[in-house]
């Protein structure tokens, strides 16, 4: 009886959860009350409820303690976190990695925010390498050399939709030299905005060299605008989207000169021709910009599927995005979420604009067109500057670099294709965020007045709806799989084994060992309950995803079983049929509370 009273008291006090007054008098009263209740039960009042017969066992009592299902569990949804990759450079352009969280100030639409996540990162690390062998086949082969598992992925994106042949030839030569500087653990890919001559990530420099030689311009149509009157996408946007009367007058004067020999009686017809040319230029320009941005999005999806440090290098003369700002920010958001930096190189190099065009441009000088020519020259300068804006925004927004106004393209490639030595990851949770899809401006500043420059994304779009719990959980697992960052929120160890039944086949086993002592359990119906999602993924030597297995482990452990598992832990195996070769193994474990563990492994199967 005394043992039951003590246990009942402890159970009752735990249920109070801090809401009861835990004084000595209260504890005495509690014990007396429980003693009375237990005495009545022992006297027979509780016998009115018949005990379950041997033929009718309790379902909870006999339920299995461990089940595995191929279905997603219910996870806790985390508050939306906006992440920023911030690079701080000194006056010489060298990245600074000695700043602290207190040195940064973060503003969302001008309002200061609390930085809840802060980390200093140093790109370029060795993947954890381990190899365990088992079976007679492994023992016979002896020790094997570990594979050169890729750590860094560089995707060169050539904007062949906007590039002219003369610029393309120069950047192609510089890119060839840059490829020769890549390290054995680097993997490179080559993509084009036209979608032609794409090469996925590889360490085969010959394939990349051949793809470079096949590069050619692929514009949409013969040109963005027209020759009479001269029309660019920039001018078309001013006339059609912004209703700029000065731009329309300039193009009308040009049309009057080139099509009507400056006959002022035809000005109305010249204006109609200018508006028609603007409509055509806008349509063609929109199509080329849409294709470039869509291709860049596709490249990001491709790059997101490789595990490691990831960089995209955009080689372009630039283009404007008058109606596509949402797409640009979406690209930045995707890149940040996948830890991808976007750097850009202005393929025009150091360029100079000649008012009125070069020697090949027909002269249209006349008293009525001189003012228009002067205004047109100003628009050309504005257009050239605007073309570079999107590259600067993409680079600044993702923590990349932008190289422009220089003919030293080889130096430019070397600067933008190498990762900064340090960068900072800042995160904050917006307060009272409305689900309206509105753009929010972001600004990062430093506390001290220093000559340091700050690179960070310029803003983000609010979501239009909350993600569902299962979607949130699966996204977190996917993000962890396609990364090489090791996470240790859960106590998990990764081990690998392989066995070769013959020379062309192999059996690879990925073993996840979980230390049960640090797991979070919820007590219900006399059981200790927890859910674990365990994902094992295999990548080849070039970082291409091969296969993966997801296991959902539902634990309903009795107290005695939990006590045993506290000492031995819990092991889960995933078996794969693979070919001999080098592989990167990625293990991710997530519990129902949203804690994640992620481990790297590497194996060479001879």
Measured on Cα atoms, how large is the radius of gyration?
Answer: 33 Å
Q: What coarse outline follows from CA principal-axis ratios?
A: elongated
Distance between the termini: 67 Å
Count of discrete structural domains? 4
Described by strand count, sense and barrel closure, the largest sheet is:
7 strands, antiparallel
Mean pLDDT: 79
Walk me through what this model shows.
By secondary structure, this protein is α+β, with helices and mostly antiparallel strands. The protein has four domains: 2-50; 83-123 and 424-461, no CATH class; 159-416, no CATH class; 470-605, Immunoglobulin-like (Sandwich). The protein has 14 helices and 24 strands. The longest helix has 38 residues, at 267-304. The chain is elongated, with a radius of gyration of 33 Å. The N and C termini lie far apart (67 Å). The relative contact order is 0.15.
């Amino acid at each position: 009886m005394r043992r039951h009273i003590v246990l009942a008291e402890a159970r009752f006090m735990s249920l109070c959860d801090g809401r009861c007054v835990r004084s000595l008098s209260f504890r005495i009263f509690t014990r007396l009350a429980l003693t009375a209740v237990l005495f009545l039960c022992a006297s027979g009042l509780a016998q009115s409820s018949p005990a379950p017969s041997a033929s009718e066992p309790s379902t909870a009592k006999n339920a299995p303690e461990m089940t595995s299902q191929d279905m997603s569990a219910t996870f806790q949804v985390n508050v939306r976190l906006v992440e920023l990759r911030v690079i701080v450079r000194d006056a010489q352009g060298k990245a600074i990695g000695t700043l602290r969280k207190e040195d940064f100030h973060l503003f969302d639409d001008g309002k200061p925010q609390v930085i809840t996540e802060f980390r200093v990162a140093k790109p370029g690390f060795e993947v954890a390498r381990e190899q365990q062998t088992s079976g007679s086949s492994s023992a016979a082969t002896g020790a094997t050399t570990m594979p050169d598992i890729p750590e860094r992925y560089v995707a060169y994106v050539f904007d062949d939709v906007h590039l002219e042949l003369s610029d393309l030839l120069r950047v192609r030569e510089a890119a060839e030299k840059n490829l020769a500087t890549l390290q054995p653990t680097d993997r490179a890919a080559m993509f084009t905005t036209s979608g032609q001559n794409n090469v996925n990530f590889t360490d085969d420099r010959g394939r990349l060299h051949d793809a470079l030689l096949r590069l050619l311009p692929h514009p949409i149509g013969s040109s963005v605008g027209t020759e009479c009157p001269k029309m660019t996408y920039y001018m078309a946007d001013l006339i059609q989207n912004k209703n700029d009367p000065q731009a329309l007058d300039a193009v009308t004067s040009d049309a009057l000169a080139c099509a009507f020999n400056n006959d002022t009686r035809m000005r109305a017809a010249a204006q109609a021709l200018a508006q028609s040319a603007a409509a055509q230029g806008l349509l063609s320009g929109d199509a080329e910009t849409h294709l470039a941005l869509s291709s860049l999005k596709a490249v990001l999806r491709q790059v997101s599927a490789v595990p490691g440090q990831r960089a995209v290098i955009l080689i372009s003369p630039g283009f404007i995005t008058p109606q596509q700002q949402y797409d640009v920010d979406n690209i930045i958001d995707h890149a940040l979420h996948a830890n991808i930096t976007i750097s850009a190189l202005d393929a025009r190099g150091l360029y100079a604009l000649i008012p009125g065009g070069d020697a090949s441009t027909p002269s249209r000088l006349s008293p009525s067109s001189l003012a228009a020519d002067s205004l047109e020259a100003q628009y050309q300068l504005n257009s050239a500057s605007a073309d570079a804006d999107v590259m600067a925004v993409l680079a600044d927004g993702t923590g990349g670099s932008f190289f422009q106004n220089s003919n030293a393209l080889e130096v430019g490639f070397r600067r933008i294709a190498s990762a900064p030595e340090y960068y900072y990851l800042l995160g904050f949770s917006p307060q009272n965020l409305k689900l309206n899809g509105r753009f929010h401006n972001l600004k990062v500043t430093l506390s001290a007045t220093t000559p340091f420059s700050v690179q960070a994304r310029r803003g983000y779009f609010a979501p239009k709806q909350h993600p569902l719990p299962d979607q949130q959980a699966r996204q977190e697992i996917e993000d962890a799989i396609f990364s090489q960052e090791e996470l240790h929120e859960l106590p998990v160890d990764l081990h690998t084994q392989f066995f070769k039944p013959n020379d062309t086949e192999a059996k690879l086993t990925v073993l996840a060992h979980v230390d049960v002592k640090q797991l979070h359990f919820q007590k219900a119906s006399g059981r200790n309950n927890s859910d674990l999602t365990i994902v094992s993924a295999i990548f080849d030597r070039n970082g291409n995803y091969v296969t993966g297995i997801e296991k959902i482990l539902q634990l309903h452990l009795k107290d005695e079983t939990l006590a045993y598992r506290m000492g031995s832990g819990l092991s889960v195996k995933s078996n794969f049929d693979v070919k001999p070769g080098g592989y990167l193994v990625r293990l991710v474990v997530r519990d129902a509370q949203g804690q994640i563990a992620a481990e790297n492994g590497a194996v060479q199967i001879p």
